[in-house]
Amino acid sequence: MHIYKHIIVICLAVLFINCNSVNETGFSIKTNNKSILLGDTLNLSINNPKKLDIENVTYSLDGKIIDANTILNDVTLGSKTITAAIDYNGESTEISKTIKIFNNEIPSIYTFEIVNTYPHDITSYTQGLEFYNGELYESTGQRKESKLRKVNFETGEVLKNIDLADNYFGEGLTVLNDKIYQLTWEANTGFIYDVNSFEKIDSFKYGKSKEGWGLCNDGNKLYKSDGTEKIWTLNPENLTEESHIEIYTEKGKIPSLNELEWINGKIYANIYQRNGVAIINPKNGAVEGVIDFEPLKKKVKQHDELDVLNGIAYHPERKTIFVTGKNWDKLFEVTIKKK
């Protein structure tokens, strides 16, 4: 019986390859670039091993028509699909090729200076942190321990608190137009609360994004991370995912993007398990800077439940950044500068 199943699997695999992988024309898309960077010229051409009579070729990049020698300036980074619509010998066909576009600059390295240190609830598995109208809001994780809180950042006093249902694992949050948006991890569900009453007023489902990790906003739209290299743009009216960017350096993608914060036109993203923060251009996904917060973890109480840095909140009036971590007993107010 096992041998019979094995033969069926082999036959189906051969059938799949024949139907989907063989291009009878032999056409394929050629690029002269081994590594494609932002600002490069693509230099596209068609490999034509059968010497067929090609009458016309139309190229497109993710559905947008481009020239064969297009310059990659106003594009987002990451995986892209090049498609060639080819007219030949009175017939037509379409072929495609996947490329990856990397950033063309090395990220700047930033250091930090501690301005103040405040108490933080050591039992809080911090997932989201944000100031709104001078007040600090925090979302915490772990099943049966997840919370939404309003906190006095100077004393650590919890001013308001909501416990999530036991089956939800709290994640990132953001506040926009007097509404708190809170993610959960694997439940494909986010919650919306009134910022003043903490009353839950609605919920929403995710779209193509993998999970719920981090959340921030630019005053108009929401931005959501899902634990991959992608950051999704959400429509604040219906929470649908309108688009996404992929986060890349000059060497490759940055996965495990977690807590997000919008600071002066850039997205600051915590990199899970790295104790570092990437400074991202939201227009194309380029990592423009990296802040190494590793030394902060040594300044908090060392205990068995101590976990990584997570929690970035910008205070626009003070022009400082507040940083903490999962089960940290301190909240740090810092300034940053290029190294």
- Side by side, the strands of the main sheet go 21-22-23-24-8-27-26-25
Low-pLDDT runs: 1-22
Whole-number mean pLDDT: 91
Q: How large, in whole angstroms, is the Cα Rg?
A: 24 Å
How many separate domains make up the residues?
Answer: 2
Helix proportion range: under 10%
Indicate the CATH class of the largest domain: Mainly Beta
Structural category: mainly beta
How many E-type strands? 27
Shape: elongated
Strand content: over 45%
| N-to-C series of helices and strands | HEEEEEEEEEEEEEEEEEEEEEEEEEEE
What's the CATH architecture of the largest domain?
A: 6 Propeller
Helix count equals 1
**CATH fold type of the largest domain:** Neuraminidase
Supply the CATH superfamily name of the largest domain: TolB, C-terminal domain
The biggest sheet, with number of strands, parallel, antiparallel or mixed sense and barrel status, is: 8 strands, mixed
End-to-end separation in angstroms reads 65 Å
Structure notes:
This protein folds into 2 domains: 24-102, Immunoglobulin-like (Sandwich), CATH 2.60.40.1080; 108-338, 6 Propeller (Neuraminidase), CATH 2.120.10.30. Residues 1-22 have low confidence and may be disordered. The protein has 1 helix and 27 strands. An 8-stranded mixed β-sheet has the order 21-22-23-24-8-27-26-25, with no helix packed on it. A 5-stranded mixed β-sheet has the order 2-7-6-4-5, with no helix packed on it. The chain has a 4-stranded antiparallel β-sheet with strand order 9-10-11-12, with no helix packed on it. It is mainly beta.
